[in-house]
Design goal:
The chain is α/β, with parallel strands linked by helices and about 450 residues long. The longest helix has 30 residues. The radius of gyration is 31 Å and the shape is globular. The relative contact order is 0.17. Bound molecules: adenosine monophosphate (AMP) and zinc ion (2 copies). One zinc ion (ZN) binds next to loops.
Length: about 450
Amino acid sequence: MHIKAFLILLATCYQSAISLNAGNGTQKDLSPLLLVSFDGFRADYLKNYSFPNLQKFFSDGVHIEHLTNVFITKTFPNHYSLATGLYAESHGILASRMYDPSTKKVFSIQNDSDPFWWNEATPIWVSVEEQGYKSAAAMWPGTDLMIQNHTPTYFLKYDYKVSFRERLGNITKWLTEDESVKFATLYWEEPDHTGHTFGPENTTEMRKALKEVDENIGLLMQQLNETGLWGRINVIITSDHGMVQCSQDRLIKLDQCINRSSYTVVDLTPVGAIIPLSEPSALYKNLSKCHPHMKAYLKNDIPDKLHYRNNERIQPIILVADEGWTIVQQGNLPRLGDHGYDNSLRSMHPFLAAHGPAFRKGYRMESINSVDLYPLMCHILGISEKPNNGSYSHIRCALVSEKCTDLAVVVGIVIGVFIVLTTITFLFRLMKNRELSPSRPFARLELQEDDDDDPLLE
Ligand code: AMP
Ligand code: ZN
Ligand code: ZN
């Protein structure tokens, strides 16, 4: 009896040792994943400007032409959606400026470090840490503060003065010096900054800024190569939103429609967040007929497709400017280029490119939703997904491990088979006709003969 128990114990230990080894082996072999964002990189910059390095990057990987991002199409909401797979109403980072009515707290991108704002969701770097790996970050929004009691193991405090080279240097150092770092993320402010300052239609300035962005991508590839990471690391390069030209003659002036003493403004353009100071219906009525290029919504009537209603931090009245229009109270145009508009607008969409052992080579996709990236990253890292609004099935074909048949190839094969079969049938009939033609009179004669002496049928 004792011997039996001992044998069972021995077998159990052996089994656990095997699974532990397998686990360690998997963890060690797992390729790291690097997620890079170039802020405000509109998808069609790729069609209108030259990007030799980026082109090289995805010619050997994946290019997704445009991402339908989340409303509102601003930096913080969209970076948090990429990291959580959630719409803004579900992750809680709803705008660059927010007000929470129950705690009376105020959020801005200069005052963003209270975990209260971020804890409604779990970003991927927190899941990576919770599941036993390490993460590293160079200034991706949210990575330099406590979320769910975690920061990445390695991170840089946000400082726009730190160069791209320095951010990248830190990332490659962490990835090479500590093999447990399985997820890293890197953020850069361009071409968003130039887009705001000069407007995306200033091709001279945009060309300069985009050339620098491409040089930074070249630097990224070079440093990954020099550190031996290139080829074994999975790299995703993407962005948060696009950019559109604004102008002084496309201003919507609230002072011409409503009295400043009747409301508080939390955020203004191109999506206004308004708190009425008395009964909202009169204010709403004035706002809804204020300007033909601005829509006003009472919170409960915000369209479903925006996924922007179910959160305390969404104010009682929301204003949405049409593409290229700017909402001000009074005065001049604040920026020549802007974003934040309806996420169904093409001008608001960024792109995505990916390279590495997990990805197909030379694979192109038209579009995905930006929230689909989260389940893809979890899949690559082998970590479990938190509930999210993305769908792995939309993007899985970007991976080499997935068996996917290209629809164009299937259609091509079907058409090809059809043509071959039709040709064979045609040739077969032609040959048969040729064989039959000299003997036709005889055939008819034979038939006639048969007809003549057909007594058996009678
Ligand atoms: P926006 O264009 O208003 O959506 O915001 C983009 C700006 O946010 C960038 O130009 C950066 O200066 C700023 N920004 C980006 N990340 C951070 C961060 N982690 N903390 C503070 N500001 C940031
Ligand atoms: Zn941005
Ligand atoms: Zn911006």
